Amino acid sequence: MTNQNKVLNHIKTYAVTYLFIALSVFFIIVSGLDMNYVASQLLLRLNRNAFIVLALIIPIVAGMGINFAITIGAMAAQIGLLLTISWGVTGITGILLAAGITLPLATLFGFLIGKLLNRMKGQETIGSLILGYFANGAYQLLFLFIFGNFIPLSDKVTIVGATGVQNTLNLTGSVGLYKALDGVLQVSFSLVVYILAGAAVLLALLQFFRKNLTGKKFAAILILAAVLVGLLQIPAIADVFSGAGGRQLIRVPVVTWLLIGCLCVFNLLIMRTRLGQKFRAVGQSQTVANAAGINVDRTRVIAIMLSTVLAGWGQIVFMQSDGIGTFQTYAAHEQVGLYAGAAILVGGASIDRATNLQALIGTFLFHSLFITAQSAASNLFGDSAVGEYFRAFLSYGVIAIALVIYAWRGAKKRKSSVDLTQATKE
Predict the structure, then answer these.
(1) How far apart (Å, rounded) are the C-alpha atoms in residues 109 and 69?
(2) Whose CB among 257, 312, 333, 342 lies 3.0–4.6 Å from 74's, allowing a Cys bridge?
(3) pLDDT of residue 409
(4) Could you tell me which of 47, 108, 62, 117 has the C-alpha nearest to residue 270?
(5) Using an 8 Å Cβ cutoff, are 101 and 79 in contact?
(6) Cα–Cα distance between 70 and 245 in angstroms, integer?
(7) Neighbouring C-alpha atoms within 13 Å toward the C-beta of 342
(8) How confident is the model at residue 265 (pLDDT cuts 50, 70, 90)?
(9) Please, which residues bridge with residue 251 across strands?
(10) Residue 419 pLDDT
């Protein structure tokens, strides 16, 4: 294959990603928003959403498509948060308690989801979406009638003089859950860039001397590190992050990003284990995997269970980092699966292929448009409401395109197999 064909195939594969890059740049320019505001809001959204998006990778690798049922994992997390608030456990201890409650609930829910999706092989993406809607009804019943009546809760979370849980719960003040992770340690964005650049160079040097890294890759890492550090020396760029001129100083919550980094490492390491190899084998071909002695159904259930638990923990990270500091009891989970699925697809992932980098890039691009859509629409059309419609169009449109491409590739692959079989017979 020539270099030109490689470039064309690359552009074709990541066409949606490049389109979103162009749209992001265009919207940022048209919106007229201060870059300091855009950067701070984008970092906040990355803090809140990256963990949840990364939770989608394992089911995709296992050939189960976009697991929209992570919404049910988010519901498990919200049950954990509700009980934590009701019992008055605050701070890091409260977050750990909520995560502990989420673990068995999300594991059970994931097991049931996996069993159901095994009954609808080939339709997992749509099936998980419908399961999310079904579970939402059970969730509403639980919070409206069961909690406070059959399961006692404190007056801090129930509706006084009626049944059910309050519509909005406060996470700030004495509740002590707001920014319980984000607020532990925060450092400036510039310092994080310097540390990461230095660490990348040292690691590259070590790998180069061990002959595990080629000279070209080593040079590329050095150049990238130098470029990142050099950009921060440009006054216009430095002022965006430094808080100069009365702007907000951009700070990175270290603990939150350590958790995101740990999940990235977990996704990488689990794929090198025997279980991870089973995920890949099942994702590539269930028939071949079954012939190799792999319990396909069991492997698929484990993939969904892991994804559901990770999504539940991601929802806890999201809630404590929410800029408002409140817990929308009946609505906080509703768009989790949709937005996370759209974000990972924007990053270049597909229904059957995904990586950590694609998840993080997709989260960055998807939310950069969310931040600037209203202002850009107001400047372009004189109506900020257009931005809301555009957001919905992006969310559903990207998912629809991904499903169409996946179906087209599947049909093309099947046609090639049939043609090859006929040619062999002849």
Answers:
(1) 9
(2) 333
(3) 65
(4) 62
(5) yes
(6) 42
(7) 19
(8) very high
(9) 188
(10) 56
